[in-house]
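Hi support team,

I'm opening this ticket because the web form for multi-chain structure prediction keeps timing out on my end. I have pasted the exact lines I submitted so you can reproduce it. The total is 564 residues across two entries, so I didn't expect it to be a heavy job. Is there a limit I'm missing, or should I split the entries? Thanks in advance, R.K.
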Amino acid sequence: MATQHSRSAARLMMAPAVFLLLVWMLVPLSMTLWFSFRKYLPLRGGDLGWAGFDNYVRFVTSSSFWPSVMTTLIIVGGVLVVTVMFGVLLAILLDQPMWGQGVVRILVIAPFFVMPTVSALVWKNMFMDPTNGLFAHLWRFFGAEPISWLSEASLPSLVMIVSWQWLPFATLILLTAIQSLDSEQLEAAEMDGASPLSRFFYIILPHLSRAITIVVLIQTIFLLSIFAEIFVTTSGAFGTKTLTYLIFQRVLESQNVGLGSAGGVYAIILANIVALFLMRIVGKNLDA
Amino acid sequence: MARAVTTQRKAINTAFAWGVGLLIFFPILWTILTSFKTEAQAISDPPVFLFFDWTLENYAAVQERSNYARFLWNSIIIAVGSTILGTIIAVPAAWSMAFVPSKRTKDILLWMLSTKMLPAVGVLYPIYLLFIRLGWLDTQIGLVLVLMLINLPIIVWMLYTYFREIPGEILEAARMDGASLKDEIIYVLTPMAVPGIASTILLNIILAWNEAFWTLNLTAANAAPLTAFIASYSSPEGLFYAKLSAASVMAIAPILIMGWFSQKQLVRGLTFGAVK
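Hello R.K., no limit was hit. The queue was backed up. Here is the completed structure from your submission:
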């Protein structure tokens, strides 16, 4: 139905967006690739020549590499478990008939709109501070010794802060998915004597599986690159150095661009593996 | 057929849901309350909840210390500027993909999405270097461009999912009546597309406002937006909870209000149309 004329017009209309994204992707990416094969120290002599795969080998053999991978996995995995579990429960709760549903929804969604630097600083100081934080008050009230959260339990604390930020996202998507569930199906199951628990495991959970997959994939992509939360709370100390943070330190703090770029290439490969799965799901949806 | 729900059960649901909702909202509520306390009351043990001497002095102190207005202005320029620019570029692209789809449309859409998945830290140095060469480091224009580019895929996707819902028959009818491509866009499509464009803009302003990787790494003093303004509070200095709270409230209030309006579009935008 589309004419030749409208086809070429369409191509023209797409051109600026495609061109810009192509430049945005190719230029920095090829620069990163190039740097990753160079011995490049901007403050100590600049570009000191070809380095082969040295940077790649050094990045993975440095003593901070595997801990940073572990930290990344713990934070991403921890946040995913917390947000998906509580997200499902919250979505089911919010789907129940109640008074003031709209207001509760607003309360639950709010943390998502708080900028990362604000939520990290508020949690760090007003809740997790070992002398003046609310948790310290609470601990003392029960006669316990306050915990210095961000140094003694740094990873669980970070998981908690980041989960608080992402729980609304998971809840909102799962709630949207639950609302599309046919209520007659649930009623029929109930009449047939299915317990609430088996209704949950055999009807609700399978119905949510696609939404859960999407939540997991999208959050993984964002969580792999969390930065501000670590930047303002621990600056990578106390075992909170993620892969992203390690690369950031190599590049901007120690100004070892070659080494950091090799790390960047690893990060890009890692993100692409996750992205591949997400794209397959999103792509399938396009055909529908 | 809706199930009859007993009032009792509804009351239990309500109490429980409100409890959970308030618990999740509590950190924000506590920040708002603390921003009106004096520094001494802000750290008092046991904590004071509502019965303290409400004061506005923290807001004045924050304003005085850091010239809040400049950071706010930078945030507005960067968030709104990048969104508007992105929308201007994305509308024609999304329009043509939705109404004149070709075999490659799906591939192009997915490819655009894949650029969004590029981890920022992987290209940090090249961007940093290019910004130094171009003189864009710590400028509004540089950040507008970067945030426009990182959000462009989301803008195109959101618009595409909205445009796709506009029935093609209307366009055909208009064409039959002799409308040119230009007329079609101005008189038929635009009015139907405005709600979708508006919610796309709203969500992307929120995303750009809260972006905290590029804004922290590419700014220093001149173009620093509110994310950097808050990060400057990360080294503790005497009693500062009340001032930190006031600064936080000032940084999140505008976007919190906008966010509440855009919550319906949030799901569609952030899942690239995979969940509606």
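A quick check on our side: Residues 65-240 of chain A form a domain with the MetI-like fold fold (CATH 1.10.3720.10). Let us know if the file doesn't open in your viewer.
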